[in-house]
Amino acid sequence: MVDLKFTTMTGAETIVEEAAVEELKSSLRGELILPSDADYEEARTIFNAMIDKRPSLIVRCAGVADVISCVNFARANSLLVAVRGAGHNVAGTAVCDGGIVIDLSQMKGVRTDLAARTVRAEPGLTWAELNHDLQPFGLAATGGFISTTGIGGLTLGGGLGWLVRKHGLACDNLLSVDIVTADGKFLTASATENEDLFWGVRGGGGNLGVVTSFEFRVHPVGTVLSGMVVHPIARAKEVLQFWREFEATAPVELTTGAGLLMAPSAPFVPEEAWGTPVIGVFGVYTGDLDAGEQAIRPLREFGPPVVDLFQPTPYNIAQAMLDDFMPTGYHNYWKSSFLTDLTDDAIDTMIAQFAKVPSPMTVVIIEHNGGGAMNRVGASETAFGHRDMSYNFLIPSLWADPADSEKNVTWTREFWEAMQPFARDAVYVNYLDQEGDERVKAAYAAPTYDRLVTLKNKYDPTNLFRLNQNIKPTVEV
Q1: Chain centroid to CA 260
Q2: pLDDT of residue 1
Q3: What 3-state class would DSSP assign to 85?
Q4: In CATH, what class is 110-220+452-459?
Q5: Which residues contact 28 (CB under 8 A, 6 or more apart)?
Q6: pLDDT tens-digit profile of 345-394?
Q7: What pLDDT sits at residue 271?
Q8: pLDDT per residue over 425-446, tens digit each?
Q9: Helix axis angle, 18-26 relative to 64-76, nearest 10°?
Q10: CATH class for the domain made up of 223-431
């Protein structure tokens, strides 16, 4: 090992002596990875292939002590810090150029308390892994539309998912966290301990520290009704109009969304539809299955659809039903906004813009999250404050060839701009790409943002944790 060149928090270069790096390594139970190591390329690779960053050091933490060592090392040397959970965030903040990556992906401990219906989960878990361990007990943790998403980043940003209308956001079911703050302290935050910090981690992202475990309330779920119905694109407007009216009276046990997509070449799709644009409505009903059959009957009968995939399914399997539409290792560029309403003009605009989609892998998604448990929590009770937003509009553009980046990014931006007459000045923080300070502020109502700044000033005044949708401190240090 030799002296290493690093990027500092201010973007300057600095040299850290070999002895200091060796001292860090000796303090670890986990693995320290350098650019010269065989597994460096794999360790720096994340979900979004648009992100190609080369950290100077990656530490795969084995536990809390490793996290504390990394935070202290980074602070002592003023190093740029990235924190990685599952690495699924589209903005690519899980890695950095020239800094240190605190990699939590190997921390996957789960402890379930069946009597209390709670689970203690470490931050390297994905929703697939967490709900896999809960499924044998007929329980589920709420959070995640895509099962390969990490529990950490999703929860810290709020945590929409298939159970949101029945059981709320992931952060609404958070009972406590263990967290390492920028000064290297290990704290527990809950409703009775470090309450201000607990408010902030429920929606404020990774701005306040490195969470090393999450305690969730979990729910009896077991088998659900899940799947999708698919119609030809020529019927997209009437399908979306029907779905809009259907959602107005749908029971809270049912969470659904709609998507414009290219029909996959799959056995369940008629061969003549392969590769053609279609409109799909997908959902999960949690509760009595007979009542669920009654609830989704209008969805199954309207049209009728050319494909109907709704069926009883274990929840951990149902949560993964859209995973194939969000595969790892492709180029991603996302734009998103909450909508004021799903008007006919908004529907017409979506259909017209999707007709020009440059990549067959891209799916345009309209989520309906409102009218249920999410709305029963006050806007000021957590740092996730956008609780009156019924519809969430997302363009997650995906493509394989980097040569196609410009046309896909341009199309996505033009689509999003065309939708702005129907959008709120608000966005779900977990769907933000690298879009600047004003868009970060749009993720929070003004009182919420100001309160987060106060917390940032208290817990991270030097902005050590800046590679996120960043809340900038305002104090002089």
Answers
A1: 20
A2: 65
A3: coil
A4: alpha beta
A5: 59, 61, 62, 66, 69
A6: 999 999 999 999 999 999 999 999 999 999 999 999 999 989 988 899 99
A7: 82
A8: 999 999 999 999 999 999 998 8
A9: 160
A10: alpha beta
Instruction: Quickly list DSSP for 70-96.
Output: HHHHHHHTTB-EEEESSS--TT-TT--
Distance CA 50, CA 456 (A): 29
How far is residue 290 from each of residues 32, 293, 314, measured CA to CA in Å?
53, 5, 16
**Strand blocks (E) in 85-132:** 100-103, 110-113, 118-121
Nearest to 252 by CA among 291, 303, 218: 291
Residue 272's pLDDT band, with cuts at 50, 70 and 90, is confident
> Taking the domains of the chain in order of start, what are their residue ranges?
4-103, 110-220+452-459, 223-431
- Average pLDDT score over residue span 326-336: 96
Please say if the pLDDT value at position 312 is more than 90. Answer: yes
Q: Tokens for 354, please give them.
A: 């999707």
| Element housing 216 (H / E) | strand 210-217
Query: Structure tokens of 255?
Result: 């969470």
Give 4-103's CATH code, choosing from 3.40.50.300, 3.30.1330.10, 3.30.43.10, 3.40.50.1260: 3.30.43.10
